[in-house]
């Protein structure tokens, strides 16, 4: 398999580039301009060491030990000890896509040339990334300020020939993987250990991954809601552009436009008064709710795209000005707030979806057979699927408490305010998965409800219905539905539903 090459320089990495790298579609190399910038900053580090100047993390200890001066002869030992001591994470291990994202983002941050790291050090990290040698990284242990110290230390440990990695599906000692791959182990020099672990790359990778999937959830929410509208004979007047332009909210206008196009040509929707004068909120207010989540998504995307190209370690070296500046770019507050915001926005997509599912399975609200089965009593149909959706939505509510409002002092009160951004990003991943399954339940129920009526479906909803039916047949009797839910959720999270629906609409929707 031939791979294209992505050149990184710390300035132009996009979310699309990030996705291609984590999926293993491209190899990564340092751009020539990055090599030049990195060499200049490294020269400044070497000069500081020669002059014996007191510079945090270069000639001093770390955190509360910043006032302890370290002898020049112990510089390499200092950096190695930093990695070893900080590799103390706990809990389940991060998935390989998240780890690949971390490796890419740390390399890209160092490529900016503000960190004083040798080019050979970053190239070793990229060798592992390109060969598919992934450090084993525990998910818990970061406070989200001073960067994601523990996770990043576990990421760097294998470069020294220590710790563990996964390679070709096998978990093994990093020393064995380096030997088999013929990659020399690193010996860190002044400043390098600190520069390699002092950053926001775990929370950034997790949030970037969530953004990629959240885009698919937004499309799925609109598409599946359109199917539900058709199933229940909904009233499309609520999506008239005049109504939404009168309010002026960008996301709301976009969501209403998307629903109109999804329903284009439908013969299953109704006029006001034909069945009812107006629909319940979970149908009538789809643009207002989904649109608000879309606006939140766009805000978070902006934060994350900036962070993909951010210098987030400390201190930073400005070679041209011959300045070394200590500050707090490692603080994860921008990402922490963004991840919490996206968590709430995604959870709301699930919350309103579950209410639509209830309308589908409840005969008093739908006019359809109870629980969407023709032989109620003997068959329970989709009765318990609504329970599942309600359970997932309720779990999401407990996960929506913002992690970013918490802080615990650390390092003997030297680091007395932290972001908890890593916690925000990790629970966002859980809410993404829960919401995908909640939407999957509505997808199944709406498709089943459409089996009980006739008439032309909309341009987008017909595509969505046909796609599901390629894998999940209509419900004619009771069966185990777990695999059906997971199949529908995969269609959503993989982007397959998004792709097929957008293709059917001939690219009409941006």
What report would you give on this structure?
- The chain is mostly helical and 510 residues long.
- The chain folds into two domains: 4-199, Orthogonal Bundle (Fumarase C, Chain B, domain 1), CATH 1.10.275; 206-310 and 347-504, Fumarase C, Chain A, domain 2.
- 55% of the residues lie in helices and 6% in strands.
- The chain has helices at 15-22, 32-51, 75-86, 96-110, 119-131, 149-156, 174-181, 192-197, 201-231, 241-247, 250-262, 281-284, 286-307, 333-361, 363-366, 383-399, 421-450, 459-469, 482-493, 496-504; strands spanning 4-8, 26-30, 90-93, 134-135, 138-140, 164-167, 170-173, 316-318, 323-325.
- The strands form four sheets. The protein has a three-stranded antiparallel beta sheet. The chain has a two-stranded parallel sheet with strand order 1-2. A two-stranded antiparallel ribbon has the order 3-5.
- Strand 8 (316-318) and strand 9 form a beta hairpin.
- Helix 4 (96-110) crosses helix 9 (201-231) and helix 13 packs antiparallel against helix 14 (333-361).
- The radius of gyration is 26 Å and the shape is elongated.
- The relative contact order is 0.12.
- The mean pLDDT is 94.
- Belongs to the PAL/histidase family.
- It catalyses: L-histidine = trans-urocanate + NH4(+).
- One of its GO terms (molecular function) is histidine ammonia-lyase activity.
- Its main location: cytoplasm.
- Its EC number is 4.3.1.3.
Overall average pLDDT:
94
Topology as a string of helices (H) and strands (E): EHEHHEHHEEHEEHHHHHHHEEHHHHHHH
Report, as a whole number of angstroms, the end-to-end distance: 32 Å
Strand order of the largest sheet: 4-6-7
Estimated share of beta-strand residues: 5-15%
> In terms of structural class, how would the helical and strand content be classed?
mainly alpha
**Whole-number radius of gyration?**
26 Å
* Number of DSSP helical runs: 20
Describe the global form.
Answer: elongated
Number of domains: 2
CATH class of the largest domain: Mainly Alpha
CATH topology descriptor of the largest domain: Fumarase C, Chain A, domain 2
How many E-type strands?
A: 9
Q: Which percent range fits the helix content?
A: 40-55%
- Mind describing the biggest β-sheet? 3 strands, antiparallel
Extract low-pLDDT stretches: none
CATH superfamily of the largest domain: Fumarase/aspartase (Central domain)
Named at the architecture level, the CATH assignment of the largest domain is: Up-down Bundle
EC number: 4.3.1.3
Family: Belongs to the PAL/histidase family.
GO molecular function: histidine ammonia-lyase activity
Modified residues (2,3-didehydroalanine (Ser)): 146
């Amino acid at each position: 398999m031939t791979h294209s090459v992505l050149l990184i320089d710390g300035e132009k990495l996009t979310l699309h580039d990030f996705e291609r790298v984590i999926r293993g579609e491209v190899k990564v190399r340092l751009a020539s301009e990055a090599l030049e910038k990195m060499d200049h900053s490294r020269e400044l580090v070497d000069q500081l060491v020669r002059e014996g100047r007191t510079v945090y993390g270069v000639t001093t200890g770390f955190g509360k030990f910043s006032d302890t001066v370290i002898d020049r002869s112990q510089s390499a030992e200092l950096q190695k000890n930093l990695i070893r001591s900080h590799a103390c994470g706990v809990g389940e291990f991060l998935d390989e896509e998240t780890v690949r994202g971390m490796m890419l983002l740390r390399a890209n941050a160092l490529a900016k040339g503000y960190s004083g790291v040798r080019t050979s050090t970053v190239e070793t990290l990229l060798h592992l990334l390109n060969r598919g040698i992934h450090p084993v990284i525990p998910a818990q242990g970061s406070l989200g300020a001073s960067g994601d110290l523990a996770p990043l230390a576990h990421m760097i440990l294998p470069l020294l020939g220590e710790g563990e990695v996964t390679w070709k599906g096998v978990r093994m000692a990093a020393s064995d993987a380096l030997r088999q791959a013929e990659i020399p182990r690193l010996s860190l020099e002044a400043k390098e250990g600190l520069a390699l672990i002092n950053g926001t790359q775990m929370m950034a990778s997790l949030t970037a991954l969530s953004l990629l999937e959240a885009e698919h959830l937004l499309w799925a929410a609109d598409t599946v809601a359109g199917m539900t509208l058709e199933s229940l004979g909904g009233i499309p007047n609520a999506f008239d552009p005049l109504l939404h332009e009168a309010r002026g909210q960008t996301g709301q206008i976009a969501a209403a436009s998307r629903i109109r196009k999804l329903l284009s040509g439908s013969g299953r929707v109704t006029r006001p008064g034909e069945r009812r004068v107006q629909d319940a909120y979970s149908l009538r207010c789809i643009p207002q709710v989904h649109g608000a989540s879309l606006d939140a998504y766009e805000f978070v995307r902006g934060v994350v795209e900036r962070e993909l190209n951010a210098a987030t370690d400390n201190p930073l070296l400005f070679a041209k000005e011959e300045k070394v500046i200590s500050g707090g770019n490692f603080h994860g507050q921008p990402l922490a707030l963004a991840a919490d915001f996206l968590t709430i926005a995604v959870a709301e997509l699930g919350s309103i979806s579950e209410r639509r599912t209830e309308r589908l399975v409840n005969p008093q609200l739908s006019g359809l057979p109870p629980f969407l089965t023709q032989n109620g009593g003997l068959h329970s149909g989709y009765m318990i699927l609504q329970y599942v959706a309600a359970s997932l939505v309720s779990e999401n509510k407990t996960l929506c408490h913002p992690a970013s409002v918490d802080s615990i002092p650390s390092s003997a009160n030297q680091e007395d305010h932290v972001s908890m951004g890593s916690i925000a990003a990790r629970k966002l991943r859980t809410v993404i998965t829960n919401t995908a399954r909640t939407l999957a339940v509505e997808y199944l129920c709406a498709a089943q409800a459409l089996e009980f009526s006739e008439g032309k479906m909309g341009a987008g909803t017909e595509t969505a219905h046909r796609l599901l039916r390629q894998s999940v047949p209509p419900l004619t009797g009771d069966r185990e539905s777990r695999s059906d839910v997971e199949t529908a959720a995969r269609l959503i999270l993989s982007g397959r539903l998004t792709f097929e629906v957008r293709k059917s609409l001939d690219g009409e929707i941006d």
